[in-house]
Amino acid sequence: MKYLLTTILAVLAFTACSHDNSSESNGQGRTVIVYMAAENNLSSIAQVNINDMIIGAKKLGSKDRLLVFVDRQNPQEKPFIIRLTGNAKQPVDTVYQFNNDFYSSDSEEMKQILGWCMKEYPNDSYGLVLWGHADGWLFHNTTTPKASTPSIKKAFGQDSGKDLNKEEMKWMEITEMRDALAALPHTFKFIFADCCAFQNVEVAYELRNTTDYIIASPAEIPGAGAPYANIIPAMFNKTDATMYQQICDRYNEAGGTGNRVPISTVNTAKLSDLASATHDIISNELNGKTFNMDGLVYYYNNVNYVYRAERIMYDIMDFLRQNTGNEAYLKWRQTYDAAVVYKKKSSKWDTNGLVDFDDFTVTDDNFGGMSMFVPLNRYNSTQKNYNELIKQMEWYNAAGWSSIGW
After folding, report:
1. Neighbour-count burial of 242, counting CB atoms closer than 10 A to its CB (0-12 exposed, 13-18 middle, 19+ buried)
2. Would you say residue 107 has pLDDT above 90?
3. What domains does the chain contain, in order, with CATH numbers?
4. 395 — phi, psi (to 5°)?
5. What's the order of all strands across the beta sheet hosting 311-315?
C-alpha cells in the first residue's frame, strides 16, 4: 500500500503509535488480526463489535495478541490499527494511525497491513477475522461497478471510499485475497469470516494453502455480526477442535430460539482429497444427466436489482445426495466429512430476501454446511453468465465440471 510502504521503511522512527514488542512476545501464544472493512453501511456496527471484543479480550493469555484494523465510514477519521489488551486501565491501545484514507478492499493494502501485524506482533500461530460484506466466489469484470450496474456484489470487503456513492464501491476478488494471503510470511491457524456466504467450496479451495481451518457460514449472517464477547476467548484456544467447535457453537447459539446462523469448519488439508472425490462422483454419476434441483437447500438467490431470481449457491451435500447413486454418494460422503469437520445447522436464518424457506427443509441428512456452484443451462441466458465466471475458480477443474462438458 502506498501509504504504509513509506512508513514501514521508517518504522523505527515511528514511536507515537507503535511499540517495541520484544519483551512482550517470545514466539509463543497466538496473534489474531481482525480485518474490519467497515467503510460501508456496516460502519455503525463496527464500534459495537469492537466493544464486545474488548470484553472478550479480558480472557487473553499473557502471550496472546488481539489486533483490529479499522476502516470506517467517517470522513473525519483515517484507518487505524488498535490492540485490545484486556487491561482494565487501558483496554485499547492505538498501535498504528494512517495518515491517508485508502480502499481496504485493495488486496495489496490487505497484504501490507497483515504483514505489518505479523512483523510487529510475532507469535507461534496466527488467526484472521474477515469482518464486512461478502458474496462468496462471485466475480465481476471491473473493480468498480458502473452506474448502470450499481448492485453488483463481489467476494469481500465492500469499500465506498469517502462517501456512500455506489459508483465508488470497490470489492476484493477471492483470487486477489488468495494471492495477498499467500504472500504473507506466515499462514493462519484459522480464518473466521464474519460475513455473508463465505463458506463456499470454491472459496475454501482457493484459500486452502493460506490457513489450516476456515470457519464461516454458507448463508447470510445477522447485521449485528458475531457475539465477540463470547467468541474472542475461543479464538485463542490452542486445541484446534475446541477452538473451532466453540466458535461455531457460540455463533449458532447467539440466535437463541429464533433464526440461527448455519456455520461450519473446513479442514483445508483435506480439500485436495475432497476435490478428487468430487471429480470422481461428478464424472461417473452426473455425465449426461439433467440435474434435479427441486427442494434443494440453497443459500443465495440473487433476487434484487440487476440479477433476478438466480439461485447460485446450493448445499454441496444436498445436491450430490439427490443427484447421485447411494453407494457413490456414501463413498464421497466419507471424504466430505473428513474435510468439513464440524457444522451447526439452522432451519432458518436472517435473510435480506435472498432465501424463501418454504422452498426447502433443512435436516441432518441434507445440511452439509458448505455451498457449491452447480452449472445449469439457465445461467447461459442470464445477464451474468455464472457458467463462464466459475471457470476462474480452481475448483471448477479440480472437481470435474469441465470433464462432463461444463
Report:
1. exposed
2. yes
3. 28-270 (3.40.50.11970), 271-338+361-401 (no CATH)
4. -60, -30
5. 298-301, 311-315, 371-372
- Beta-bridge mates of residue 172: 156
Amino acid at site 194: D
HSE-up (13 A, CA, CB side) for residue 217:
30
Q: Could you tell me if 202 and 141 are in contact, meaning their C-beta atoms sit under 8 angstroms apart? A: no
Residue with cell 456484489: 153
- The type of residue at 338 is A
Cell 434441483 sits on residue: 293
Amino acid letter, residue 328: A
Contacts of 256 (CB under 8 A, 6+ apart): none
pLDDT in tens, 353-406: 778 888 999 999 999 999 999 999 988 877 678 899 999 999 999 999 999 999
Contacts of 249 (CB under 8 A, 6+ apart): 344
* CA dist., res. 361 & res. 9, Å (int): 56
For the chain, helix (H) and strand (E) counts, in that order, are 12, 14
Report the mean per-residue pLDDT for the chain.
86
